[in-house]
Amino acid sequence: CDAMSCKSKCWLKFFNAKNAKTEISGDIKWYDLNAQCLRCDEINCGPAFIKGAGANRRSAGIESDIQRPEKQKCHMGMYSGVPEEELPTLPKPSV
Question: What's the burial of 59, exposed, middle or buried (CB within 10 Å: 0-12/13-18/19+)?
C-alpha cells in the first residue's frame, strides 16, 4: 500500500488529517470523502499492514476512527476495553 492506492479518495487528508468516528460499511455517499478514504485504506492497505506488523488496532482491540458494529470489534485483544488515555505510550523524544 502506498499513497497512490487511495489518493483519489484521501486527498483531503493533506489539508485536514482529522478523522471523525465514521461508518464505512454500506452505501457511502460520493461526498463523504472521510468514509471513502477510511474504507479504501482498510480494503487496500489493511491486509498488507497486518501481514507486515502482525496486527492492527482492530485486531488488538483498540478503537479507531472507524465506527464499527459490536460484531466487528475484537473483544479478546490485549487492549480491548482500555480507554485511550490509559493505553501505553512512549515518552516524547527530547531535542
Answer: middle
Q: Which helix (H) or strand (E) holds 80?
A: none
pLDDT tens across 47-70, in order?
787 777 777 877 777 777 788 788
C-alpha cell at 91: 515518552
Half-sphere exposure of 71 (CA within 13 A, CB side): 1
Angstrom distance (rounded) from CA 39 to CA 8? 12
Residue 33: pLDDT band (50, 70, 90) is confident
pLDDT at 24: 85
- The answer to pTM > 0.70 is no
Q: What angle do CA 18, 22, 26 make, to 5 degrees?
A: 145
**Which conformational region is residue 61 in: left (phi greater than 0), alpha (psi within -120 to 50 degrees), or beta?**
left
* C-alpha cell read off for 17: 488529517
The SS3 call for residue 8 is helix
